[in-house]
Amino acid sequence: MTVATFSVAVQPEDFDVAALQHALLAGEQEEGAVATFTGYVRRQHGNDQISQMLLEHYPGMTEKAIGAVLDEAHTRWPLSAASVVHRIGSLSPGDRIVWVGVAAHHREAAFCACEFIMDYLKTRAPFWKKEASTAGDRWVEARVSDDQRAGRWHDST
Amino acid sequence: MIKVRFFASLREQLDQSEMDLPWTADLNTVEAIRTALIDGGGELWRQVLAAPNVITALNHAVVDLTEPVSEGDEIAFYPPVTGG
């Protein structure tokens, strides 16, 4: 297995996607592909207008859980670098929540690993969203479709 | 001591984010600790901690209720995760 550079950050602050992609490639000479994903706070939940999103997490476990997802991705695809940034605390509609970046020699590994990391992060990393909306405050329910998306990877690479 | 932590909706329902339990030899699995918490807390704690979708973590890793527990461990109970 190639040696890969992984980084995980859990932070209240916003992030700069261009700077993160630049950092992902720092020191890399041979990369042919970078795939990235940025997740944002939705403005609506059904018919309800979201006014605020609170992100809670489990300090200490969160970083380990995301690191384990990156390690798992690296056992499946030859990656040279992967990075995850996830925000916590109080966010507003339209704010960035999460960024995943993957660098690899070829696009297939970069695309697949980026999607895999998001699918696994959503079902394994201990984050919880609480929405404030026109319907009141409520904890976001885990979605079966997220489990199904993560489950797809059990049978394939 | 065993540190027990609760997150998100469980934390709110129990009105508690963490507690320390004196460790004894019979508190030797996650299940035994959950039972002790329910016995000590009553019906609300039973409803919250025995719900079928509650996830348990031991020392920052998700585990089954049968997982052995030792002095100094940290246990967490939380609902299905919704990050990303």
Task: For this entry, give a set of tags.
heterodimer; A: 157 residues; alpha+beta; Aldehyde Oxidoreductase, domain 3; 5-stranded antiparallel sheet; 4-stranded mixed sheet; 4 helices; 9 strands; globular; B: 84 residues; Ubiquitin-like (UB roll); 5-stranded mixed sheet; 3 helices; 5 strands; 31% helix
Brief description of this entry?
Helix content of chain A is 32%, strand content 38%. By secondary structure, chain A is an alpha+beta fold.
Structure write-up:
The complex is a heterodimer of chains A (157) and B (84). With 157 residues, chain A is of the alpha+beta class. Chain A has a single domain, classed as Alpha-Beta Complex (Aldehyde Oxidoreductase, domain 3), CATH 3.90.1170. Chain A is 32% helix and 38% strand. Chain A contains 4 helices and 9 strands. In chain A, strands 3, 4, 6, 8 and 9 form a 5-stranded antiparallel sheet that branches. In chain A, strands 1-5-7-2 form a 4-stranded mixed sheet, with helices on both faces. In chain A, strand 8 and strand 9 (136-139) form a beta hairpin. The longest helix of chain A is centred in the last third of the chain and has 18 residues, at 107-124. By secondary structure, chain B is of the alpha+beta class. Chain B has a single domain (2-78), classed as Beta-grasp domain (Ubiquitin-like (UB roll), Roll), CATH 3.10.20. Chain B contains 3 helices and 5 strands; from the N terminus they run βαβααβββ. Chain B has helices at residues 8-14, 30-41, 43-49, and strands at residues 2-6, 18-21, 55-58, 61-63, 74-78. Chain B has a 5-stranded mixed sheet with strand order 2-1-5-3-4. In chain B, a hairpin with a 2-residue loop joins strand 3 and strand 4. Chain A binds chain B through residues 39, 55-58, 60-61, 64-65, 86, 97-98, 118, 121-130, 139-142, and chain B through 5, 7-9, 53, 57, 60-62, 76, 78-84.
